Amino acid sequence: MAIGIGLIGTGFMGKAHALAYRSARAIMADVPEARLSVLCDMPMDRADAMASQLGFDRATDDWTALVADPDVDIVCITTPNGLHREMALAAIAAGKNVHCEKPLALSLEDAEVMAAAAREAGSSTLVGYNYIHNPAVTHAQRLIADGRIGRPVHFRGWVDEDYQADPEFAWTWRSTRSEAGLGALGDLGCHLVSMSHLLMGPIESVLADTQIAHATRPLPDGSGRGTVENEDTASALVRYASGAQGTLCTSRSAWGRKNKLDWEVHGTRGMITFSQERLNELRLYVNDGPKAEQGFCTILTGPDHPPYGAFCPAPGHQLGFGDLKTIEATAFLRAISTETSAYPDFTDALAFEQVIHAIDTSAREGRRVSL
Amino acid sequence: MAIGIGLIGTGFMGKAHALAYRSARAIMADVPEARLSVLCDMPMDRADAMASQLGFDRATDDWTALVADPDVDIVCITTPNGLHREMALAAIAAGKNVHCEKPLALSLEDAEVMAAAAREAGSSTLVGYNYIHNPAVTHAQRLIADGRIGRPVHFRGWVDEDYQADPEFAWTWRSTRSEAGLGALGDLGCHLVSMSHLLMGPIESVLADTQIAHATRPLPDGSGRGTVENEDTASALVRYASGAQGTLCTSRSAWGRKNKLDWEVHGTRGMITFSQERLNELRLYVNDGPKAEQGFCTILTGPDHPPYGAFCPAPGHQLGFGDLKTIEATAFLRAISTETSAYPDFTDALAFEQVIHAIDTSAREGRRVSL
Amino acid sequence: MAIGIGLIGTGFMGKAHALAYRSARAIMADVPEARLSVLCDMPMDRADAMASQLGFDRATDDWTALVADPDVDIVCITTPNGLHREMALAAIAAGKNVHCEKPLALSLEDAEVMAAAAREAGSSTLVGYNYIHNPAVTHAQRLIADGRIGRPVHFRGWVDEDYQADPEFAWTWRSTRSEAGLGALGDLGCHLVSMSHLLMGPIESVLADTQIAHATRPLPDGSGRGTVENEDTASALVRYASGAQGTLCTSRSAWGRKNKLDWEVHGTRGMITFSQERLNELRLYVNDGPKAEQGFCTILTGPDHPPYGAFCPAPGHQLGFGDLKTIEATAFLRAISTETSAYPDFTDALAFEQVIHAIDTSAREGRRVSL
Amino acid sequence: MAIGIGLIGTGFMGKAHALAYRSARAIMADVPEARLSVLCDMPMDRADAMASQLGFDRATDDWTALVADPDVDIVCITTPNGLHREMALAAIAAGKNVHCEKPLALSLEDAEVMAAAAREAGSSTLVGYNYIHNPAVTHAQRLIADGRIGRPVHFRGWVDEDYQADPEFAWTWRSTRSEAGLGALGDLGCHLVSMSHLLMGPIESVLADTQIAHATRPLPDGSGRGTVENEDTASALVRYASGAQGTLCTSRSAWGRKNKLDWEVHGTRGMITFSQERLNELRLYVNDGPKAEQGFCTILTGPDHPPYGAFCPAPGHQLGFGDLKTIEATAFLRAISTETSAYPDFTDALAFEQVIHAIDTSAREGRRVSL
């Protein structure tokens, strides 16, 4: 019996969800089939066209109908962040499993309500922190857990893009706190926090600064320039519950960075580094063997780094962005079918997002903020 | 009306074909839907299991039935190379379109027969030289065609893996010329020739050497060591019809190389280089602007390099191996629906494979071989 | 008339000074000859041996004699940091020019006294921030000054080594604040600040955290473990006088990093990045030309990046660490002969070192510290 | 008693020799002092100026006087290749040690005469194949000798620059076979052969092709275009005495390559690769340990790779081109003082240069040439 997918939204992430669920079983074999049941978008002809393209059984322009649809087991929410709360709460209330894009919501309060609702309802939930499902990253996680680099003592991470690097890039609602919430932290920073959490465990406190690099942007109607209200860059000094320390940095105005999501874990016996723009590579340095032969080893992912082998039996052939989303969808299908929990669920994601809001608070108030 | 796919073989390439055709329309939008109609493998329970996993309507263990099936518009042949000829000829005779994995056949004679049959029948054919469909590579092709690096005067290419680098890797039928045909040239070298052809045009003559690096390998039954009959490495000095020259090198015994398929095009105004293990990057040097600022530019593919944008609207998010196969399948679906020809068809592929056989001949006879 | 060099200390930096002054004129041509006059080390036989090896006219084990020697025009101070103040003050009092290794002194107070003395005496001074003399770095400085990447809005820098990464590395006086002063900040961090200053101008305030990653180390006499008093890592959020922001990070416990001194300057039109472990390369991204061709350009230094050409007329042949020191010594010889000032002199260096002390203060007091 | 240096020529290589001998003992300690005795160049005022700059005792414009000078122990020959023979024979006849730049001579016949003369006279000689003295390269040599990558079965090498990549670069005597001899092979290719020899042992035969990419070049007097007579590129298939095979390629018309001298050694247990434009790095892959952790290790040279430590006690601080020349000069000073032989002497270098001439012959005659 296939698991029915109801997808709200057909932008970048909507399409990514559809493709991932379409292919999950064909790729992974040992996972339940997903059936693309209902697609919701507006206007209706867009919904129809995308349902046809992506292979959904039917389309709607009424998300409440989708949420109520008995054929829908998983509600995928890929709409603008400000809509996540209402949709997720409705889906939870309707007894659905919810796969929501990150960040959970505009405000931490909304995210808390969502997580609480999911916990109370016992819903299975998953949040779209797709980068942590990369076989290179989960291999790093295993290496660290196995003590390969000793005790992790320091972490550095960066997540940068350049989509707002051009000062003449137009002002949009994304520049407002009321409609968009956080800036680079909400778009990008939370991905980095998810990596940090996976590799280093929870953060205990942050001390941060943020920056609006481009104070105004041209209004799209040509009537002058609008004020940018949310941060272009954010940087935080973090302390982990483990006693480790680190820095987390993000920018949406970093020319040349297309999907930089880089990090390094400093351990007492070695170091691991990773760069998302070369997502099939992991670099490992271990203080082992002759000094004259020590160096960073560039490991190319392959079948020895599961679930790479489900995509391709030959190493070094490279996974892509869409493949990471497929691994994520697989995790949810498995969790639902085995009634276990997927990672990161709403509660896990709330913990990530508390960090980005704490960074924002620290920067605004000029003080260390505890979590 | 969907285009029906009949797939023979469910190994590495079989699965890759299935996944590509499953997703092509969902990703590309403006391409006909493909329907996974019939899957053939042996034994029957394997065929059934894979048909279920990959989403085929039905399974068979009789490839002749698949070829004859009226629901099948495209016959995908992903079986061992020695079987290609018989299957392709039958499919052509049945009036099907044929998507065959590379190389076309064990021997050049077989490949010639296949290409002739396709031409005579007016069949649409496509051969699985998937790497040339990479947006980075087709961007390079455009740059060269536009004269961005001037007149191409020299080419260097390498295609290396390490799957036979271990001297204790067991002897198999792949070590025999009778069953496997060429060694590294057939497995890997032909991919390089496809790149060379795309970027530099046809090769006029070759002067080559080959090497069996591991003369014997342990027999799987433990009874001693078997003789390796085909080449572990091949290297060729080539002259192009354009007057350019170059070198083509391949090895299946190159430790550390997982999918190296690298090349550089030397032009009179610049240079382009590419490395398959970083398939989302192109490096371009142009003799333009201030000397103090000249250098190789690392271009990360994105929506400016079509059809990347069909997979992801954000640059730098990376395509994977499977995505290249989807672009290839898309090309065939489009060709069939518009009754134009796809590239490379059997005749195009024959030209590539004539080169690897000429390299083999040159090496065995110690003389320059013209094409 | 050659400029006489009196060198105190023959360790890593002492030898580097000697080699640099020996070769400066032979390499640069248009710079006064330096004569290696007096070398001071202890004990006397070590001084004699090193004077012979390095080519000094004579040796002494009494640095006060060296400072008083009429043949000495430049006093080079390469002794442990705790000795810099006394020696520099004596040299200034004796009317000498002073070339002192970084950091100026253990404490900021000592550094202030030294800078004040130099200013009052009108001495020519230079501090050994050799990395900023790299032609790649000064080329970056020019590119920024020329507006090639627009207005610099953000800076990130890291300076890491692994010489104290091993938890079992023995405890020494370097672990104490009384004898060694700061830890990673004093050894490494100040180099990064010198880069930041050169490229971004003065820092206005810092908000920082530091970490002792290895709380104790084995005592060399085997009697147990000694307490480490100074920082293994430091991280700072900085605000520049220009309005830009950034982060500065350092670690002496970063496995695999041998001389990482990396930075990136984010501008409104582009980005420049640099990595000291590949000191002959600069990476430049500019939002110019067709989007499909944009990427980071790796510029290899050559004669177009002066004074590279004095070392080698051919590009890409690579300068080494010693060559940077030669450029530094040349700057001082020229400054002295033209009675202009060299950069960075004691006052300039004091500004760098105020930053590392502000970072330390901020970390200890948990508050933003203004400069 | 210092060893007296007589240097003929003050271009790129002349200066490099002077700097290397000036600093050798200061850097290396356990090597005899070299004294810069006599410098020869023309006209006399150039000789005087350079003698002053470089620190020679005296200057001359008569090389025969230099060769006869009793203060001269080593005659360094850095003049155009066509002059090497006469000068070297005179120096050998005068009982001098000879340090000659590569290649030995325009023609193989001249080189043979020189090698024979040196052998007969029992002269100590050295030829300037400086790149093989790189600590990274000699470390690779040790790794191979120790069996770290098993039996070497294949070699690939490239040496490329772009100094003649521009089709409008003016015609000079360097374009003629009579005055310049070989083209890219003589300038660049012989360096690659020296690497190949060091790492793989002697070459037994070659099969090659060459190319004149730019058939004519503008005459400097504006009177039209002159014919280019020697090769812009050369490529060879080589067989080693050991049974290994490989390819050697060179181009002087490869845009973007400034000092590419890259190679890879394929062994039965691993691979080593090197790139001259990153001369302080060696990449090593060994089939050891868990498959999931295998990858190319980037080794940064340091004190564990002698004689790096003589230049700098800290790893990763980078040697430069000049430092390689210093290591070369040191080898000669040591050889002379211990009456042992330096590598490569005239006879060794002759073996390298026989290979480039064999490549030229093979290309002209279209047949495999044995050595």
TrEMBL record, chains A, B, C, D:
Residues 138-272 form the GFO/IDH/MocA-like oxidoreductase domain. The keyword Manganese does not apply. It holds the Pfam family GFO_IDH_MocA. Gene3D superfamilies: Dihydrodipicolinate Reductase, domain 2, NAD(P)-binding Rossmann-like Domain. The keyword Oxidoreductase applies. Residues 4-129 form the Gfo/Idh/MocA-like oxidoreductase N-terminal domain. InterPro entries: Gfo/Idh/MocA-like_OxRdtase_N, Gfo/Idh/MocA_oxidrdct_glycsds, GFO_IDH_MocA-like_dom, NAD(P)-bd_dom_sf. Keywords: Oxidoreductase. It comes from the Bacteria. This is Predicted dehydrogenase. It comes from Tranquillimonas rosea. The lineage of its organism: Bacteria, Pseudomonadati, Pseudomonadota, Alphaproteobacteria, Rhodobacterales.
